[in-house]
Amino acid sequence: xxxxxxxxxxxxxxxxxxxxxxxxxxxxxxxxxxxxxxxxxxxxxxxxxxxxxxxxxxxxxxxxxxxxxxxxxxxxxxxxxxxxxxxxxxxxxxxxxxxxxxxxxxxxxxxxxxxxxxxxxxxxxxxxxxxxxxxxxxxxxxxxxxxxxxxxxxxxxxxxxxxxxxxxxxxxxxxxxxxxxxxxxxxxxxxxxxxxxxxxxxxxxxxxxxxxxx
Length: 214
What we know:
The protein has a seven-stranded mixed β-sheet, with helices on both faces. Helix 2 (about 55-65) runs parallel beside helix 3 (about 75-95) and helix 4 (about 105-110) runs parallel beside helix 5. It has a single domain, classed as 3-Layer(aba) Sandwich (Rossmann fold), CATH 3.40.50. The longest helix is centred in the middle third of the chain and has 18 residues, at about 75-95. The protein has helices at about 25-40, 55-65, 75-95, 105-110, 130-145, 190-200, and strands at about 45-50, 70-75, 100-105, 120-125, 145-155, 170-175, 180-185. By secondary structure, it is an alpha/beta fold.
């Protein structure tokens, strides 16, 4: 049984997608993931995008922990219905509509959103059989919709190669958990711009989300 781990709805059971076609993120991996995201301080007030959402457990966990808005994108009819059940659950606990479900394939969704759409935190948990080139195409489309300091988390099989990051994105950490590997990426900042930002920073302790070790 999956559940919301922490936050306003901590301990609340979540609906699961029936059958074996959807692979939910285990509680062990989810706890480790959100522990790291808490260390990055990127959840509270974040605009969150959960692609290949499955049951929506990562998105609703973010909502429970204080995300401002959460978009769940899932194309499968059964899975999107479960997303809606879990979205209704967390929205009811929070007393406001924080989580919105979009029944759509990922690439058409990213093609449709306005150029101004931007997110602070993005989860991608695609089916393991998804080809590397298809994932690379999604990341390319996503890169234009990341705010400075955003964090992108890609969940893949530990046997899969590192995702092909687009020009506007760079990997800063990765971690293996049994058969699962999490890759963390952020918007790429050219060296010249990064140097100017550091010169204007308020002190030597300023650091981005990539600072904590893998």
